Amino acid sequence: MHVVLDVIVLLGKLIFFYFEALFRKIVPPSKKSVRGKVVVITGGAGGLGRCLALKFAGLGAKVAVWDINKTLNEDTAKSISSLGGKAKAIVCDVTDPQSVRNAASLTRSELGEVDIIVNNAGIMPCRRLLDLSEEEIKRTININMTSHFWTVREFLPHMLAQNEGHIVTVASMASKAGIPLLTDYCASKYGAYGFAEAVKAEMHMLGPKNIHSTTVCPMHVNTNLVTSLTSRIDYRNRFGGVSSAEEVCDAIMDSVLRNKEFVYYPSYMGALSDWSQCIFPRNSHPTFFEFMDTGFFEKKKKK
């Protein structure tokens, strides 16, 4: 009897969630204010990280820009300051827990307790599995995924204490499907996606209602991560080109400000990815991938 009641309650909740999702499609949540909030952005020296830093600062947030590249990192902070914003450039190796602790301590002393974390730092060697060095594999996993443990563990206690915070995970559509030449990258982004989901589940278990999570899954973005590969790698996409950092950044900011849990860019990619895995037989996936003609391909050597 208890099982029957539990099933009825479950169905009732699922129906509610469906209607809630439909309602939010029609009437999006209002945007929250980040004025005065402290934001940490890893990989803030360029690309999406720099763009996000400028956007948050433009809304009145205080931004700590973390990156291993001291010169470009300081340039981001100076650009924010020149526009009247407040920023602190901090050199940080996100793969090193002690470096993260040092950067966190400096952030707190300069800007205050952290309200929003944007785990954005990432690399993408883009090589065949057997051509990747051991060091490249370890570095990709450590930067793209393991570093999220160190940043979240550093700032989550304060978020729990104040029952407020936001964790942004810049994953990738490579966290939804395996892609040739990106074995290490896909593994790291699958890991980052899974980490974000597990943290979100823990927050639900612990009970705080105001610690939000946004996971970002863009297709390829026109940043140095992609453009640095053009000498040896071709990028193809039958249904579109490489997205600009600005348009992806705008989509991320809108989702964070509205506390949306997921960002897919282009937006249709999320549904397309899920449907292709659910509708088509498993052994058809390589054929579907070939039809999409999307991804990285080695340039043919001239004879």
By secondary-structure content and strand pairing, the structural class works out as alpha/beta
> For this structure, what is the CATH class?
Alpha Beta
CATH fold name, please? Answer: Rossmann fold
Anisotropy-based shape: globular
Strand tally, please? 9
Largest sheet strand order: 3-2-1-4-5-6-8
Poorly predicted sequence stretches spanning 5 or more consecutive residues: none
Looking at the overall shape, the CATH architecture is 3-Layer(aba) Sandwich
Helix fraction by DSSP (H/I, runs of at least 4)? 40-55%
Provide the CATH superfamily: NAD(P)-binding Rossmann-like Domain
GO molecular function: all-trans-retinol dehydrogenase (NADP+) activity
Function: Catalyzes the reduction of all-trans-retinal to all-trans-retinol in the presence of NADPH.
Subcellular location: Membrane
Domain Ketoreductase: 37-204
Fill in the keyword field for this structure.
single chain, alpha/beta, seven-stranded parallel beta sheet, two-stranded antiparallel ribbon, 10 helices
Word description of this protein:
This protein has helices spanning 2-26, 47-58, 70-82, 97-111, 134-162, 183-206, 224-227, 245-257, 268-279, 285-292; strands at 38-42, 62-67, 86-91, 116-119, 165-170, 211-218, 233-236, 262-265, 295-298. The chain has a single domain (32-298), classed as 3-Layer(aba) Sandwich (Rossmann fold), CATH 3.40.50.720. It is globular, with a radius of gyration of 20 Å. The protein is of the alpha/beta class. 51% of the residues lie in helices and 16% in strands. Helix 2 packs parallel to helix 3 (70-82) and helix 2 packs across helix 8 (245-257).
